[in-house]
Amino acid sequence: xxxxxxxxxxxxxxxxxxxxxxxxxxxxxxxxxxxxxxxxxxxxxxxxxxxxxxxxxxxxxxxxxxxxxxxxxxxxxxxxxxxxxxxxxxxxxxxxxxxxxxxxxxxxxxxxxxxxxxxxxxxxxxxxxxxxxxxxxxxxxxxxxxxxxxxxxxxxxxxxxxxxxxxxxxxxxxxxxxxxxxxxxxxxxxxxxxxxxxxxxxxxxxxxxxxxxxxxxxxxxxxxxxxxxxxxxxxxxxxxxxxxxxxxxxxxxxxxxxxxxxxxxxxxxxxxxxxxxxxxxxxxxxxxxxxxxxxxxxxxxxxxxxxxxxxxxxxxxxxxxxxxxxxxxxxxxxxxxxxxxxxxxxxxxxxxxxxxxxxxxxxxxxxxxxxxxxxxxxxxxxxxxxxxxxxxxxxxxxxxxxxxxxxxxxxxxxxxxxxxx
Length: 421
Ligand code: PLP
Description:
Layout: H1 2-13, H2 19-24, E1 32-33, E2 36-37, E3 39-40, H3 51-64, H4 74-94, E4 102-105, H5 108-119, E5 130-134, H6 143-152, E6 155-159, H7 169-175, E7 180-186, H8 198-207, E8 212-215, H9 227-230, E9 234-238, E10 249-253, H10 255-260, E11 271-274, E12 279-281, H11 295-309, H12 313-332, E13 337-340, E14 349-354, H13 359-367, E15 371-372, E16 374-376, H14 381-386, E17 392-396, H15 403-420
Parallel strand pairs: 3-15, 5-6, 5-7, 7-8, 8-9
Antiparallel strand pairs: 1-2, 4-10, 9-10, 11-12, 13-14, 14-17, 16-17
Helix pairs in contact: 3-11, 4-11, 5-6, 12-15, 13-15
Bound molecules: pyridoxal-5'-phosphate.
């Protein structure tokens, strides 16, 4: 009965998915660029911020600014409460068991570096051990492990992907050996848009007693990610890709694993006692949050999550999928276009090339029409090599984008092609 009531309350509480109203929440969407209404299709790089997030930052600095944890005065208590409330919001958002499993970081990259720098010190990674990653990883899930290899000679084993940009699961299974000490996988590819079969990947690793780290940088804004349901051991994401501020991110880890890791950085706030001879450390999460953290960033992230919680995530996913299908069909009507990343299960990201036109030219020319897309390797150079392209153009949509914007973009693409023909 309680369960049912709870569900009913939540359904009643969801905000109606009204695209015109949603767009009003994001002030930047009504600005012009180069004399044209902005069409912002670079959401995989960073998302725009709703008024509530922007206002929370100003409000904090105007009325609540103080350092946290260390003060007994009013403002310090308010700031601490806000900071820790944000941790609770993140906990609920990804459904971790406890708020102490939520470590605030600078972002996805910082979270992975934290793990790379502490796992080997906890002997969870040793000389000759293997880490399984996939061919579609962002550099953030490649380079930190390579840097670690300088010290520990860690071997990266790479799961190949098929031509559609999907992980080849049989090859994944073959890579697992007694030397595998971590599987570190991107949930949703920022370049291909592929949504990986994460639960299956985790279950296979766990059958072999291997912990799993999930790079959820792109996933969290497109679908509900539940760490208990997934049973992942670690998960990282960035606030700025979730309609929150830059410079703030999250590392989730199961408490039993985080407790085994040594501190990443030393300094204030992460210690219990310090003498010149010896230091003892705070429990998690403080153990991993040395120095004054990004207080306002975490508050902004909490507000972004509160904003998103107003919506039914299924509405967001459905709408974005509709946009993706619409844009994909329109793009495929254009001669000479090749879409890189055609997985069956895809987020709203379209990477493409056009015969005879460099992606940089596409990006630069359509920018004159106020359209923001990204061109380049998207921090995934191995994907470029896999598809034998120097770069791609990438349009990535958020739930505030519209079919009308897609039409403007397609029209601009036609214009570019005409210029080069
Ligand atoms: N992983 C993925 C899949 C990403 O898309 C990105 C950013 O584009 C990152 C990691 C790195 O995120 P950040 O630069 O916020 O640390």
